[in-house]
Amino acid sequence: MNTTLYAALLLPLVAGALGAQDLQLETNLTTAAITARVDGAKEGALVVLVLGLHEAAYKLPGDQILGVEPDLVIGFAIADSAGKAKVGARLPRGEEKIDCFAQAVAVATQVPLDAPGGITVSKVQHLHAERI
Q: How many structural domains does the chain have?
């Protein structure tokens, strides 16, 4: 394969990785609960926190990449006028340790899904917590 072909094959992945930096995600995980703060969403966007046991690469509209095998949607919130949202949930009892991946997805309500800014995502975070 030549360099041009490599570039053509990698361009969609690179574009998705660059787009994945639009949202800022700050998480706090314990064996009892998870909380997340998201910044950088459009005002009024639906912000969803997705957890999964494995990383993945699902193409979303607008050339965004969902980088988590979506095992569980933790919760959702509406972004405020500053583009911030808080999402949280209690986790089932009985787990001694939790090891998972998290990603925030924001869906703008006033922009078509496939338009720039219609869907934005955060970087995938690897999360780990153990009961003390």
A: 1
Contacts of residue 5, defined as CB under 8 A and 6 or more positions apart, other chains included, come to none
The CATH number given to whatever domain includes residue 71 is 2.60.40.1940
Q: What is the pLDDT of residues 59-68, one digit of tens each?
A: 999 899 999 9
DSSP-derived secondary structure for 16-61? HHHHTTSBEEEEEE-SSEEEEEEESPPTT-EEEEEEESSEEEEEEG
In this structure, what token pair is assigned to residue 67? 């980088």
Q: Please state, in angstroms and rounded to a whole number, the distance separating the CA atoms of residues 45 and 10.
A: 30
pTM given for the model? 0.80
Asked if pLDDT for residue 55 goes beyond 80, the answer is yes
